[in-house]
């Protein structure tokens, strides 16, 4: 009898802990969503044009991305007088790279795995707001320190089983870092991205500094120059040119 009572108490305690954890997760998500500008404002965003700049091995690079939320994007990267174009339109993609950068100088179809990996760029907003909207599983793991600051560590799990670690500042409620494993050319590699310098644009929060380890060593820092919300975008720019 005592054993049964202990078991019931244990299960009850687990249920209470589970509810408390769920409430904490929802509370963190609510605060994060509010800090980002609110779900209604993000839902009203249908298109965007984002301009960035960064440096790689001393080369100054500029990029311009035209985005139709959830459907299409076109990114043009200008480097050393050359232009690299990457386009995703639905479930297909193409790119144009100069010969000096491993391309043919002509529009080429993108491999399916690259199209899938680039699919995350079809969305604006944070990984958490998008995961919540898509119904992905979000769990609070712990509260810990990151670079000396307090953060919440959450995990986002897709139906496919892929998961990401997401670190949220307890002070600002913004996402400050994500970690995940991604497929690149058939190989699984670690991906780590840090976000900072959040600024409001049309009542929406955007990180204007994004850092990620560079394949060539060190850290690559991308600075956002401008964000335009709901501009008119001609769908013709996403069509693959005929040779």
Annotate the secondary structure layout.
Layout: H1 2-36, H2 39-43, E1 47-56, E2 59-68, E3 72-79, E4 82-89, E5 92-96, E6 108-109, H3 112-118, H4 127-134, E7 137-146, E8 149-157, E9 163-169, E10 175-184, E11 187-201, E12 204-213, E13 219-229
Antiparallel strand pairs: 1-2, 1-13, 2-3, 3-4, 4-5, 5-6, 7-8, 8-9, 9-10, 10-11, 11-12, 12-13
Overall shape: it is globular
Unreliable stretches (pLDDT < 50, length at least 5) are 1-21
| CA-CA gap between termini | 81 Å
Strand content of the residues, in percent? over 45%
Mean pLDDT reading: 84
Total number of strands: 13
Number of H- or I-type helical stretches = 4
Protein described:
- It is a single chain.
- The protein is an alpha+beta fold and 243 residues long.
- The protein contains four helices and 13 strands.
- It has helices at residues 2-36, 39-43, 112-118, 127-134; strands spanning 47-56, 59-68, 72-79, 82-89, 92-96, 108-109, 137-146, 149-157, 163-169, 175-184, 187-201, 204-213, 219-229.
- Strands 6-5-4-3-2-1-13-12-11-10-9-8-7 form a 13-stranded antiparallel beta sheet, covered by helices on one side.
- A hairpin with a 3-residue loop joins strand 2 and strand 3 (72-79).
- It is globular, with a radius of gyration of 21 Å.
- The N and C termini lie far apart (81 Å).
- Residues 1-21 have low confidence and may be disordered.
């Amino acid at each position: 009898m005592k054993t049964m009572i202990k078991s019931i108490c244990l299960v009850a305690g687990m249920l209470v802990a589970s509810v408390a954890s769920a409430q904490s997760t929802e509370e963190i998500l609510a605060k994060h969503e509010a800090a980002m500008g609110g779900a209604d404002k993000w839902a009203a965003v249908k298109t965007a044009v984002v301009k960035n700049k960064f440096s790689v091995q001393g080369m100054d690079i500029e990029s311009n991305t035209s985005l139709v939320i959830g459907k299409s994007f076109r990114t043009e990267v200008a480097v050393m007088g050359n232009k690299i174009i990457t386009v995703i339109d639905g479930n297909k993609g193409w790119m144009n790279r100069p010969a000096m950068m491993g391309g043919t100088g002509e529009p080429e179809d993108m491999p399916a795995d690259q199209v899938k990996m680039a699919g995350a760029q079809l969305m604006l907003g944070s990984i958490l707001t998008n995961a919540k909207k898509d119904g992905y599983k979000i769990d609070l793991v712990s509260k810990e320190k990151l670079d000396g600051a307090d953060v919440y560590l959450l995990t986002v799990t897709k139906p496919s089983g892929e998961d990401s670690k997401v670190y949220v500042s307890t002070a600002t409620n913004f996402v400050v870092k994500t970690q995940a494993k991604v497929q690149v050319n058939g190989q699984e590699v670690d991906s780590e991205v840090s976000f900072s310098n959040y600024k409001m644009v049309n009542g929406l929060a955007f990180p204007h500094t994004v850092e990620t380890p560079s394949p060539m060593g060190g850290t690559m820092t991308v600075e956002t120059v401008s964000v335009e919300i709901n501009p008119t975008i001609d769908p013709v720019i996403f069509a693959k040119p005929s040779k």
